[in-house]
Amino acid sequence: MQAKLTAKRKMLGQGFPKYRKRRRDLCGNVGAVKRAFPLAPFILGAVICALAVPLSVMSAMRTDTALAEWWTRNVQAGWERAVGTLTSWLPFSVTELFIVLGICAGVYLIMRAFVDLCTAKFARVGIGALSVCVAAMYILNIYVLSMGFGYYRAAMPVPQSGKKYDERQTVTAIEFFLDDYTALADRFERDDDGQVVCPYTFAELAELIKAEYARLDDPYFAAYTPTAKPIVNSWFLSDMLITGITFLPFGEAGVNTVAPPTTITVTMAHELAHAKGVQREGDANLLAWYILVSSDNDYLRYCGYYGAFDNLLSAVLLFDDRDEYDRLVGLMSPRVFAERTAARKYWNAQPDLIGNIAEFFNDIYLKLNGALNGTGSYGDGNKSDVIIDVDPDTGDIVRDVVFSKTQMMFFALYEQKTSSNGRMLSCHSE
Asked: Can you give the pLDDT at residue 426?
């Protein structure tokens, strides 16, 4: 009899998953089998809901300018210094490693989900999807905590001229910088494509720009400045038309090292601007140009001109003087045009499809962070205008020129580089 009961118990226990339990009566006989209550989906769901609370609260809080300013200067700056100090000890980009591992994990999970669907293991697919959501919620919370508030800060303090420039004064200021730009363009060695050859290694360039940022003493900017790191898989960034990436959860700024040389320099300055607490793309561009153009280093200043001079030059067009604009363009070094052609050729050679997909998601990302014009926000500092009105007393047409922030930054630097008696001082370094 005992042997029969043992055989019966084995038979009833075969084929059932581990989470099924056997029910026995008081005599020890095996009865009906009851399925245990699956807790994993509910636990994961509860974790997602719990993580959604701080994410929602921070997302709502950050739209308040005063709170965003306080948070960026204190919480974000403290996080970046603590984490950035740790990651700076590593010779590679933790951000890049994180992205590579994320891609590998994503491919694995997709393949596993496909196999589970084919074998009707729907519960595993559901639990896997919930687990991915939990990981995503963790990352989003850390992202908003460490850099999400910066998009809603107060206006960035960068030197802006307070004077009202007429056309003659505008042309004079442009010629001042144009002389320096042309002299620098003719000074540096060029490669076969006409692109400037950077006289520094990546590490040397990173230290130079980091030192330039040390000139900023306004508390608006974070005191800690990370050292920019090269991205090993820069070819992938070029395919996506991306020149750099800053991820403050790791306190890092990474740069595409296969981009044209001048682009590398401007990008490094741009990414470090993000690391200084300047999240809005237009502001980051403006700060990068200011840091470079105001530098005493010839190469840095040349790269700053390369990135921003077109906007300064276009100030002449605000006075509806195309002839003067053409004259100034004719004074530029042919090497500048050759370099632009080579850079344009490089970016045109990248696959359009991948670049368009990357730009699509970047546009969405920026809009979710308060930039209503999405990727158009990169040019926010370049917006100038002409307001045409009629004088009510005389009936004459009045043209009110509104210079861009970039142009006003150049004018402020021009004023700093001229003496009190109006004599121009050279902006060449010794």
From this structure: 40
Q: Is the pTM of this model over 0.85?
A: yes
Strand ranges, E, within 225-364 = 229-231, 244-247, 252-256
Q: Which residues, in sequence order, are CB contacts of 60 under 8 Å at separation 6+? A: none
For 281-300, the pLDDT digits (tens) are 999 999 999 999 999 999 99
Cβ–Cβ < 8 Å for 188, 196? yes
In angstroms, rounded to a whole number, what is the distance separating the alpha carbons of residues 92 and 98? Answer: 11
Q: Is 1 helix (H, G, I), strand (E, B) or coil?
A: coil
Report how far residue 396's alpha carbon sits from residue 389's, in angstroms, rounded to the nearest whole number. Answer: 8
Give the orientation angle of helix 94-118 with respect to helix 122-143, to 10 degrees. 160
332-368 tens-digit pLDDT = 999 999 999 999 999 999 988 888 999 999 999 999 9
Cα distances (angstroms) measured from residue 269 to each of 63, 223, 255: 27, 16, 10
User: Which tokens in the block code for residue 116?
Assistant: 């589970």
Please state the domain extents for the chain.
2-35, 40-152, 169-307+324-381
pLDDT given for residue 388 in this prediction? 79
C-alpha closest to that of 195 among 308, 87, 53, 346: 346
